[in-house]
Amino acid sequence: MGLPSNTNHIAFLGDYVPRRCGIATFTADICESVAAELPDGQCIVGSVNDRPEGYDYPERVRFEIDEQDLDSYRRAAEFLNINNVEVVSVQHEFGIYGGPAGSHLLEFLRAVRMPVVTTLHTVLSEPNEDQREVMKQLDLLSNRFVVMAERALPLAVYAASSSVGRATSLDQIDGELERL
Prior knowledge:
alpha/beta
């Protein structure tokens, strides 16, 4: 994968298995893939809970966020800051974070003190006012965007009023990896 050898502590935020949803599976898969590429590094996960009792998570999950509890987003950010995480990979979908259009996530992003790479799992062609505002804030608080398909890039740039240079697609990443 060609990750920098000096990156040692990466966090992933999103749903996580055993929760049954596509983002949980994606987060687990990307975390395990990165961990395999960085055998001397540490990959940890923060999982978002949609129910009070949470889930029986594997050891990789080091902290949990209560979807509707704004304070738990702040605590999660502080956990990452205290533990010297170097970069956080956020899995974004409007429906998995609390608040209007998932706006509770913004509290977390404002509090972390490391680079943020946000993967947009859904890019809307016609976001409502709340969704557009969340996208604009995501643009301000993220160092990089990743979208699932190249055809979503223009929509992501439009929805977030973002610069196309900070966004990439998994299609592009796959192409770059094949050339290595």
